[in-house]
Recover the amino acids of this structure.
């Protein structure tokens, strides 16, 4: 028994010495398996107790268990110390110098088209107009019929539409908002709104897109004249394109206005003398306009014998292209940062 007891004490001392020199959790685990595992050295000594006399076995078992407990406590303590040391080293290695300047993230900004639409809205809000909205999925009645475009009207061919069913389509203009607003507001006067929003047509080239943005305007009241329309559009053009701008009206045709006029603004690049952009004319087309057709007023619930009104419509992309000198509309939908960062 004495010999076996000495071997246990020696194994305990040797193991504690090896444990004190371990530098990694893996070394601790390997040493634990070597000593306390099923085939470990302490386990082997425990099996040799069978050769001792029965009277000596309890005392020897107590000595072995004390050694095991002492070693396990030493292992736990060493593991804790190593974990703390490794954590301290990792935190030291990941130390952040809070005095260093931080990483600057690039700031985003409004898309040039959004900037132009907001500027248009601000200009007309300053002239007393209100902003009105309507559905992008529209009925044939509001998109065409109520705007003096009955079934089979040849002017419908001017707008190649996206039909969902025979009576439902993606709106080709924001003019339906004018009818909906008049219906909602009748008989109160004045009706003075702009209607910005997305519209859809079967177009896709450098100056057209299947989805684009329009801003329609409507002013209905007693005694509204063509000269009022001219004053509003001149004020808008000068605020949008520069105080020296002039406009001109050219006779045109729109089913929902009578008389109708195309509106040109003097070229902002050459000042009206003629250049490549304005094709030598000195003028750039910006929008269509006219006095609201009596049938449209009646459809909206107003008596054309008592009130008059004017309406206009412009493409926001067209305004942006003129304002910023953009030659291809598709650039505004490509999301190319090289293009967008210029604005």
């Amino acid at each position: 028994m004495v010999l076996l007891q000495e071997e246990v004490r020696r194994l305990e001392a040797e193991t504690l010495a090896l444990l004190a020199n371990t530098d990694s959790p893996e070394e601790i685990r390997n040493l634990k398996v070597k000593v306390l595992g099923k085939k470990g050295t302490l386990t082997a000594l425990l099996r040799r107790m069978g050769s001792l006399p029965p009277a000596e076995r309890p005392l020897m078992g107590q000595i072995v268990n004390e050694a095991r407990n002492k070693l396990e406590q030493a292992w736990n303590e060493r593991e804790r110390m190593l974990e703390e040391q490794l954590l301290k080293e990792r935190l030291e290695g990941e130390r952040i110098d809070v005095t260093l300047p931080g990483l600057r993230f690039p700031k985003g900004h409004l898309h040039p088209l959004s900037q132009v639409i907001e500027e248009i809205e601000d200009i007309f809000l300053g002239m007393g107009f209100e902003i009105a909205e309507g559905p992008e999925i529209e009925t044939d009645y509001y998109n065409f019929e109520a705007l003096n475009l009955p079934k089979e009207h040849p002017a419908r061919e001017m707008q190649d539409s996206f039909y969902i069913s025979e009576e439902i389509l993606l709106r080709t203009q924001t003019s339906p908002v004018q009818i909906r607003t008049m219906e909602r507001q009748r008989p109160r006067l004045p009706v003075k709104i702009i209607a910005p929003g997305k519209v859809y047509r079967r177009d896709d080239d450098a100056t057209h897109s299947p989805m684009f943005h329009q801003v329609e305007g409507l002013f209905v009241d007693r005694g509204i004249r063509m000269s009022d329309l001219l004053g509003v559009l001149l004020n808008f053009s000068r605020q949008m394109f520069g105080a020296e701008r002039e406009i001109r009206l050219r006779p045109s045709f729109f089913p929902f206005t009578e008389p109708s006029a195309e509106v040109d603004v003097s070229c902002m690049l050459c000042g009206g003398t003629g250049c490549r952009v304005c094709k030598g004319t000195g003028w750039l087309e910006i929008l269509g306009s006219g006095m609201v057709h009596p049938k449209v007023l009646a459809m909206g619930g107003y008596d054309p014998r008592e009130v008059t009104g004017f309406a206009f419509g412009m493409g926001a992309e067209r305004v942006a292209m003129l304002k910023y000198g953009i030659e291809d509309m598709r650039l505004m939908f490509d999301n190319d940062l090289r293009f967008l960062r210029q604005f």
Summary: The CA atoms of residues 278 and 284 lie 6 Å apart. Residues 112-340 form a domain with the BirA Bifunctional Protein; domain 2 fold (CATH 3.30.930.10). DSSP finds eleven helices and nine strands in the chain. The longest strand covers residues 211-221.
